[in-house]
Amino acid sequence: MGAKLKRWLRHLPAVLGVALLAGAVYVVQREFRNLKVEEVLQALHGIPHRALWIAFVWTLISYGILTFYDRLGTFYAGEKVSYRRVAFASFCAYALAHNLGFAAVSGAAVRYRLYANWGLSPLQIGKVVAFCSLTFTLGGMVLGGVVLFVEPESVPFFGALMPRWSMYAIGAGLWAVVAGYVTLATWLHGKRVCGHIVDLPGWRMAILQVILATVDVAVTAAIVHALLPEAQGLTYIRFLGVYVASYTAGLAANIPGGIGVFDTAMLVGLAPWLDAAHVLGAIVVFRLYYYIIPLFLAGSLFAGNELLLRGRALLKTHAGAPVPAAAGAAPQPVVASVAPAEAATGRFSEPDFVVAAVSGIVAICGVLLFCLGIVERRPDFSWIDPDFAVLANPAGEFVPSLIGGALMVCVVALSQRVALAWSLTIGLLVVAAGFTVAQGDSLWIPGVLVLAAGLIAPFHSAFYRHAWLLAGPMEGAVLGPLLTLAACVIALAASERHVRWLADNSWWEVVLSGDVSNSLRATVALTVVLALAAMYGLLRPRRVRPAPWGGEERLRYASLGGDPPARADGVVWGESGHAGIPFRRVERVMLGLGDPAGADSDRISAVWRLRDLARQEGSALAFWRVRRAQLKVYADLGLTAVPLDADGLPCDPRDPAAGRAEEFLVCHTERDLLRLLPALAQTQARIQTLAQTQTE
């Protein structure tokens, strides 16, 4: 029962996100069905230039404040990192986290990559990540309490329904949590609680956290407030209540950028003071300033940094001498024992942040095409020739909105590292760019799409998993979605008689519109949903199926250059079958036995496939007896290295020999280490017994 409950709880965030998004769609359809695109465009054009500049300045200040989150976080971790590097890491982490959803995870992936390259240990990076996540939460709690005491009615959905005393109680509870944190920080510093060492940052830094986060949330809200027209009765405090509640809902949905949920909550919350067109116009500019522009800047910085790092590593390999660090990276000595293929950055391991960055960029492009009719007017070719207008404009918004939906499906597959999704994404971006150029759209739209394709093109090695479509012979699991997709395309083509009307509307506008027949609406909705579902069915990755550890697998592993362990529960092969790693299941830990053996080009997939298998089974991940030269690989997985003695058991870090250790155990937490110790001791005893027997 407990295992089933845990499996259900793992899916709770996704279920919550879908529920919030479905509720947002329902509210928009019910409350804003009369909203016209022309009204939104007029509201956009009506925003004064002064307001645009003020919002832009607030955006710069907001991202500047965020850099001090990481600055304080590195102090808390006990490591001195220059402000230049901290600012770089902070901007890239938050620009991606704001757009990707699951902000704590996506931001952590970025920080692990950058801070690890600057010499911080996984434990120190974990402290920075936890510090930054907690800091933002504290600011939201402080301002949430202010709003609930001063203007409780401004909270969307609940403000007008709940009694004042309950809102006061919630506000007092939020403040109590903040006060409790500061109080605990005064004495709970490096103390052991329930068997775990709790190390809070201290009361002075805790107070700085609260102040910094409160100012940050207030400044971010000021970006949207500056873009709204003046409205009688809409004070900043009232607006702050709407903003904090809407942003919290967007975070809870775990949808990239809180798309749909944040916007709907803002529209409903501000409805008593402003019309939907002006609110939506302000949100569009806010997303441009705070989300889209920073995302592409961060993506460009990442791509450039990775290219420079790879070039530096290759120069090390070929020249055999240190070269200057690139993009703030700390110089590292050359390790003679590292093979050339393993020394080149990115050849052996592609960290999570690459996948997170690519997924975020594609998600933004998908949303752009999905809502093309809102951000770009359709050109009118009728002045040339009415017949030419029919040929030039067919499906002018319909096709881009379909491509946008397909890109959102690709985002899911990209997050699972599917190689076919990477290829399909680049193809869709190029096709969409060519389509928008042919339709006469503003050049910035195809420019953004081409830039996105160029940014993700260098990272093909990060996507190595085979799609279900390419998993093997044509069978029911592949043939069914393939036939469904073909049938959906035919069904859409059968609506050709409506092409003039569809030319000016996205597919979701057709579904929500009351100006067309219910049969057409139902046909479009059903075919698009089925097509996207079938597309995911073809793109989803194969499940990891380990091979049993037997004589044949032992010989195969040995032929790849590996030293077969005396005992294993199975072996995971790379996607190409040219590398593998045996493993054991120890309580709730998936323990990889040594570094993967085999071809360098397939080692990355063996490591990540073992990680995927651990996730499938709900287990933690660890690797035993890995070499010093490969520690960076496992650091990219967020694993902490523990030095091993000559017997393969963890040694005291205070022992001078620990600094000269060549083999390590890498795991996530101290709890995993305690689980593994008995099994490691037994394994080592068996190895010694076997060696003595062979000697005799």
Please tell me about this protein's structure.
The chain is α+β, with helices and mostly antiparallel strands and 696 residues long. It folds into 3 domains: 2-290, no CATH class; 352-539, no CATH class; 551-695, Aminopeptidase, CATH 3.40.630. 64% of the residues lie in helices and 6% in strands. The protein is built from 27 helices and 9 strands. It has helices spanning 2-10, 12-31, 37-45, 49-77, 83-100, 103-117, 122-150, 164-187, 203-227, 236-253, 261-270, 276-319, 340-343, 352-370, 372-375, 386-392, 398-415, 419-438, 444-456, 476-493, 499-502, 507-512, 518-539, 551-559, 600-616, 631-635, 670-695; strands at residues 189-193, 196-199, 570-573, 579-586, 589-593, 597-598, 620-627, 640-643, 663-667. The strands form 2 sheets. Strands 3, 4, 5, 6, 7, 8 and 9 form a 7-stranded mixed sheet that branches. The chain has a two-stranded antiparallel ribbon with strand order 1-2. A hairpin with a 5-residue loop joins strand 3 (570-573) and strand 4. Helix 6 (103-117) runs antiparallel to helix 7, helix 6 (103-117) crosses helix 14 and helix 14 runs antiparallel to helix 17. The two termini are 51 Å apart.
